[in-house]
DNA sequence: ATGTCACTTTACAAGTGA
């Protein structure tokens, strides 16, 4: 089984690259974030031609998440109980026979001390509480998406420079650890201990070219899935300006392969 | 720290969020 997560920064802008990725990787599950697309405008037809069902929770202009799958989900849930920002389309749960998949787009937070930063921490607290009250670590569950948090120093190109900044403050890292403590594994860390693996590079200042990246896109899985990890990699090529049709997202896809 | 991108609107330029 292959699971992908990708913050596409507009499904409309990234559709040619997404379709190419489906052809190239043949994933079973794809979690998308920042689709920036109302549900009725989602490109369902092009995806159906590739054999994918698209479960969507979108809105105009901002946010928006989706789960693509070869099999139609048994049920869907948009948002979660006690979401502090219920008007923002940031979380979608799709249930299948073999597993449950959550696609999440965590609040960016802008800067330490910004009201959005406090909302980010509260959102992650509420998410953990909902997961703990809804699921079991014994069941096959995936929580994948843009966490807007780099978990550890090895996930940051310049840890000393980033320490205490947005995406790499201790309160944010504590929230990610709380999810791991509940019973998730960071699937990439089941495959490799290497540092310097990044999933996001700022569009500005030539950050990608300079290697100024962070690993903030994660695929978390409970043990029934984490125990089956064969490989987890980042498709950095998707971040290159001329690698595909159209401009790149500022995020690269994360691709996990699990034993069947 | 900021050399961009995608989106929106009392739209052909400027503000916003990231």
Annotate the secondary structure layout:
Layout: E1 2-7, H1 11-25, E2 29-33, H2 44-49, E3 53-57, E4 65-69, E5 75-78, E6 91-95, E7 100-105, H3 115-134, E8 141-146, H4 159-162, H5 170-182, E9 185-186, H6 187-191, E10 200-201, H7 207-210, E11 213-214, E12 217-221, H8 223-226, E13 229-234, E14 254-258
Parallel strand pairs: 1-2, 7-8
Antiparallel strand pairs: 1-14, 2-4, 3-4, 5-6, 6-7, 8-12, 9-12, 10-11, 13-14
Helix pairs in contact: 3-5
The chain binds one DNA strand of 18 nucleotides through residues 9-10, 12-13, 34, 36, 60-62, 108, 110, 116, 148, 202-207, 247, 249-250.
Characterise the protein shown here.
This protein is α+β, with helices and mostly antiparallel strands and 260 residues long. It has one domain (2-258): 4-Layer Sandwich (Deoxyribonuclease I, Chain A), CATH 3.60.10.10. It has eight helices and 14 strands. The chain has a six-stranded mixed sheet. A six-stranded mixed sheet has the order 5-6-7-8-12-9. α3 (115-134) packs parallel to α5. It is globular and about 45 Å long. The model has no long low-confidence stretch (mean pLDDT 97). It binds one DNA strand of 18 nucleotides through loops.
CATH class placement:
Alpha Beta
SS-based structural class? alpha+beta
Helical content class: 25-40%
Q: State mean pLDDT (0 to 100 scale).
A: 97
> How would you characterize the largest beta sheet?
6 strands, mixed
SS field, number of helical segments:
8
Rg calc: 17 Å
Strand percentage lies at: 15-25%
């Amino acid at each position: 089984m292959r699971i992908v997560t990708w913050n596409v920064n507009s499904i409309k802008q990234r559709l040619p690259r997404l379709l190419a990725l489906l052809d190239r990787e043949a994933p079973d599950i794809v979690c998308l974030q920042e689709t920036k697309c109302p549900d009725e405008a989602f490109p369902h037809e092009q995806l159906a031609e590739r054999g994918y069902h698209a479960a969507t929770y979108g809105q105009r202009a901002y946010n928006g998440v989706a789960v693509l799958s070869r099999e139609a989900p048994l049920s869907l849930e948009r948002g979660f109980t006690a979401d502090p920002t219920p008007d923002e389309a940031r979380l979608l749960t799709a249930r299948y026979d073999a597993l449950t998949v959550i696609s999440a787009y965590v609040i960016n937070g802008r800067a330490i001390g910004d009201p959005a930063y406090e909302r980010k921490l509260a959102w992650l607290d509420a998410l953990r509480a909902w997961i703990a009250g809804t699921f079991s670590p014994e069941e096959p569950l995936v929580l994948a998406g843009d966490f807007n948090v780099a978990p550890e120093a090895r996930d940051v190109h310049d840890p000393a420079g980033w320490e205490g900044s947005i995406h790499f403050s201790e309160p944010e890292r504590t929230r990610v650890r709380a999810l791991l403590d509940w019973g998730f594994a960071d699937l990439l860390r089941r495959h490799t201990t290497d540092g310097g693996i990044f999933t996001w590079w700022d569009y500005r200042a030539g950050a990608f070219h300079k290697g100024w990246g962070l690993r903030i896109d994660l695929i978390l899985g409970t043990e029934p899935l984490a125990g089956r990890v064969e490989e987890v990699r980042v498709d950095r090529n998707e971040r290159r300006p001329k690698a595909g049709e159209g401009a790149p997202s500022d995020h690269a896809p994360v691709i996990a392969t699990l034993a069947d």
